Amino acid sequence: MTKIKDNKAHGSKIKRSPGDQAVQIILYIIVAACALVCVLPFLYVFGASFATEREIIERPFFIIPHDFSLNAYVYIIRDGAVFRGLKNSLIVTVVGTLINMFVSCTMAYPLSRPYLKGRNFFMNMVIIIMLFSGGMVPSYLLISQVLHLRNTFWALWLPGAMSAFNMIIIKNYFQGLPMELEEAAVIDGSNDLKTFVRIILPLSGPVLASVSLFYAVGHWNSYFSAMMYISDSKLEVVQIVLRRIIFLTGSFAEDAGFDWGAAGSPPTKAVRMATTVVATVPILIVYPFIQKFFTAGVMVGSVKG
Questions:
Q1: Whole-prediction pTM
Q2: Is 75 left (phi over 0), alpha (psi -120 to 50) or beta?
Q3: Do residues 74 and 258 make contact, with C-beta atoms less than 8 angstroms apart?
Q4: Are residues 293 and 171 in the same domain?
Q5: 104-122: per-residue pLDDT in tens?
């Protein structure tokens, strides 16, 4: 024990055998290759968004364009639909994530308490809805004809107000917190609501941040529900705008009726790339602020086992 403490005190490193070092190098190479596979397509899309139509057609892959052009972004700015879609996506993502977290946390907390009567029954119901669903047609009839939520954001928020999988993650985290904290709060006169708000939630930052990001990414990338329930162009989210531009950019660009400069033709392919960049960057910006909570969550899990 003394030698181990001395090694830690002097910051000495554990010596690895040549075999371990070779395995570590191979793992680094595999991870770097996987990272390149994930990053290179986005770098190509980003570079192509600043290229001319001719260069995109002639060069199968590039990161830095030879002929720099802003025509694609000029089209996006003049069309205005992308920024309207970004605003709607931001509303859907922020409000939808708040609804998701409220429903998930308020259901996860009572299910994490061992003294809840009927706890197993409710958990079995959650597992059933996680494995089975009514189907697309009944869901559409419920939303459009029974609840009359077509062309409202509520059609995007209410059907997925809670993910059973994410709720179970939060419930397991709550369950791992020491019960002594709740017992001490009860002795001090706290009720369940105060305990939940003042003790449980502040101690659950890592899991709340992680699950919030899961919900937010799901809302931001979702397009199928919006395609079914939203027909008003003023309520289109950015993914629907992106889909429409990908399929119909040529006709939109030709009808725009203004000079595209040196490109010589409407930037149909470049506009698709630029729209993809505009739709992807906002959610990527959020990740660095949440990354520390992922790290904290992994550390907590490793300590508790």
A1: 0.77
A2: alpha
A3: no
A4: no
A5: 999 999 998 888 888 889 8
